[in-house]
């Protein structure tokens, strides 16, 4: 009985000691990242970043089967330790203590968790089979008003009447409208960044993250983001996460308290990037121009991260791997890709593909010219001795081409010729079908406004978008004729009508849309659903003919189907004689309009209305 009581007292004393240590931990260690890791991952040499007041004065110890603390890295700032741990293949999931010791002071205990891997759908990759819908969470729908204002963050304003302020959209708002996206024929969702952006000035767009492992609480929680991704997967849809390795927000916790001076690129005085992507591959370029391009800051409150720093390299990579495994993300869109360190980005891409072979990535390449754009895509650039290992890019050159086709008169090298000329250069890509084609996005004027609010031109361009090579992406609200230019700032980022309680109109519903809006919605949906069911528009071969008289003709075809696309960029109806296209049409006699269902009994002569792209399945 005495021994039994002694055990109880000892146990209670130990429990009290642990509680005391945990209480001390809250003061001395404020974070350890990654938040957790998983057993059985190929990436098993993990570097923990530990932050706490003078934590470098303590010596950490780990005693857990299958986990080895291989190296303790002290850096310039004593508030940091970087711990290299090896998680062996025989390690089991569970929680283990990291004990920090210092002579004369109580031990600090931090419990770290190894989890079993996410058994759900993940890392599927986004391909030419998909149709991406781009939205800004703050501007799409407010599904949870309780998180509109978070008083612990720097910015607590919510002003829907001001385009540069926060409006209150969130992850729950997106979840609430997945049926809408499904009806539209969307197969993949790309949101602008949803990580915490706790900046002093508004950062509703998400491109100045202050956390790498936490959603912005004004959008929701990590768990809710995972719920959104799981909900997409249950519908056969995918999640594209927008990542920003080039820069953090200046209120990022590692920037406020730098681990070392070269965590960010330092300059004697503030220095912007020169934004000259050419210097990345210019064989005659000067070192100072390359340095300014890659190391210059994107903005005064977006410090440029030093991606040659080995600690930062692992911090960025591990946070990206973490989100794929935790939430089941299927692909990355990479912001401001040309401004990153090219060697780091090549290594980064290889590490991600090694863990998730089907995962896809496409980089934002807002550059001039197809050669410039292709220089950043996967493939050997011999004069640089570098393969970026970047599967695809955002195809700004195709966007420029379709814009000119819809807005410029046809001539020897203008109008529809721009589309033909652009595609004729596809030989410079390793695989152009991995490029993302689009009409507009959150940084550009809305296409409907660019074409003078001409609904026929918009429909024509949308038909091209869903039938040309590559991965089509559409910006939110295009399907209901949302319009706007980038000046004054923000007009391309207005709220989706119906996303907020009390909105006068609800464009998420057929009843809330006008007749013309429903016609456009159904036009897109019909074509998108056809594309979803017919591989010919996903992976079929493409053949194009030199445009004549403002008419551009191309075909998508495979062994089972052939679709003929006829784009009339003229302001008058055109009677097209099709004998020139016999290479692709010789075996066909009739056709069917994919969108209207109209039958063509004579495909030797086809009337094409003005500003129209006909999509005809040949029969």
From TrEMBL:
Keywords assigned by UniProt, alphabetized: Glycosidase, Hydrolase
Signal sequence, renumbered to the chain: none
Protein's GO biological process: carbohydrate metabolic process
Matching Pfam families: Alpha-amylase, Cyc-maltodext_C, Cyc-maltodext_N
Domain Glycosyl hydrolase family 13 catalytic: 134-531
InterPro entries noted in UniProt: Cyc-maltodext_N, Cyclo-malto-dextrinase_C, GH, GH13_cat_dom, Glyco_hydro_b, Ig-like_fold, Ig_E-set
Domain of life: Bacteria
Molecular-function GO term, any one: hydrolase activity, acting on glycosyl bonds
Name used for this protein in its record: Glycoside hydrolase family 13 protein
Species annotation: Rhizosphaericola mali
